[in-house]
Design goal:
CATH architecture: Single Sheet
Radius of gyration: 11 Å
CATH topology: N-terminal domain of TfIIb
Number of domains: 1
Shape: globular
Structural class: alpha+beta
Order of helices and strands: HEEEEEH
Distance between the termini: 27 Å
Helix content: 10-25%
Largest sheet: 5 strands, antiparallel
Length: about 60
Amino acid sequence: MDKKLVAMLACPVCKGELKLDRERQELICHGDAMAFPIKEGIPVMLAVEARTLTTDERLGPR
């Protein structure tokens, strides 16, 4: 996914910034602790399709 496209997208719940996780193919919103999947190169920006971040993911790298 292109960095310019990610920069234009916002979390559909809180309108906050999203971070791209290339390894998992997800867009992460740390504010809402949600990960939105990217399927076949298309971000699925539906809250019902998002997964909740784990506690370790919420805390970030140590």
